[in-house]
Amino acid sequence: MLYLKCTMEVQKVVGLRKSDLTEAEASKTLLGNWYVHRFPIGRTHFFLFMNEVSLLSFVLYQGKKPVTPKTLPGMFLMGLNQLLAMKGYQPSVIDQVMLGYRDGLFSKPDSRKVLGCMNDLVSLYTAMVEAPGGIHQCDLTGIIMRLNAMPQRTLDCGTSWDAVTKLLRSS
Hints:
alpha/beta; 5-stranded mixed beta sheet; 5 strands
């Protein structure tokens, strides 16, 4: 079961009502639950997806079509699939990860610690996109890969990729 823990910003933009939100349960999936936030860089709005266990993250920018409760999970799944493929995971491993995410629900964030990590990532993504001149001049894939390879104190100075590898090996 996929739980997307959406910040108030995402709940508002996507059109989630209180009745659409459930209490998130401990995940039985390989990577666990995910947090979602929306933030602007210049005139472009990005959705930040971050795993609550490994802190693995990626951003997708919002196009012209509105994001809805029906499209957000698909957007997430395509982004995660692409991220794992870019890192070089075998299709069979990616399929195993995706298997647990066939059904999805929305919930509120429930960890200040994870939200703090997410806020740090928003600052880092913003700075790294703006530094070379904005979204049209930056290497967004390179930024995502670099941030996931950055040691994090929350992970005992390990990286998000290290944590993902550990989670996948323990399955």
